[in-house]
């Protein structure tokens, strides 16, 4: 699977975990050059607290387009250490 924004591959892995239709990539499969930390936090009733990154490619920012759960609940343990994408970031085979 590949996560692509602005014709740039941000993440690539054969080992994604799909939860609620979102592919969670291993953190080491995501190119850190394209992520900037965000202060945004949200809470999912069954996964826990999510934190976000802004995806930044060639001078263009996509705020909070990547998210992860630093300490997911036991029910969501399979996404520990993984990052997912949305807001126009395409995930394709």
Automatic annotation (TrEMBL):
InterPro entries assigned to the protein according to its UniProt record, in alphabetical order: DUF427, DUF427_sf
Superkingdom of the organism of origin: Bacteria
Domain DUF427: 1-87
Coiled-coil zones: none
Protein's name in the database: DUF427 domain-containing protein
Source organism: Piscinibacter sakaiensis (Ideonella sakaiensis)
Highest classification ranks of the organism: Bacteria, Pseudomonadati, Pseudomonadota, Betaproteobacteria, Burkholderiales
